[in-house]
Amino acid sequence: MFKFTDQDPDFWIQLKGENAGKPLRNSIPNSVGVKTDPNFLVSDFLFYTVLHLFSSGQFRPFLKGSVVPYIRQRDITVALVNHWTSQPRKPHFFLNF
Fold this sequence. Notes:
Layout: E1 2-4, E2 11-14, E3 23-24, E4 31-36, H1 43-55, H2 73-86
Antiparallel strand pairs: 1-4, 2-3, 2-4
């Protein structure tokens, strides 16, 4: 579905600092590239999913470090899997209001 790489990534994720876990369109120091497999996942969908997880604070429980917070690549993957497997199976637009 996706992998962390520095070779031709679709986007980057900041790994250290107050914005650890934030997706980025351009590389900065202390960031890792993310490459999606287009047969399984649209890169913009993953970018905005990571942005949602970052904005809603769902990476905070995974942050390490007492002075400079950081997040591991494995923790990003775990947060994504948790997000995708805990969501309702029925899309919200099919719900009866």
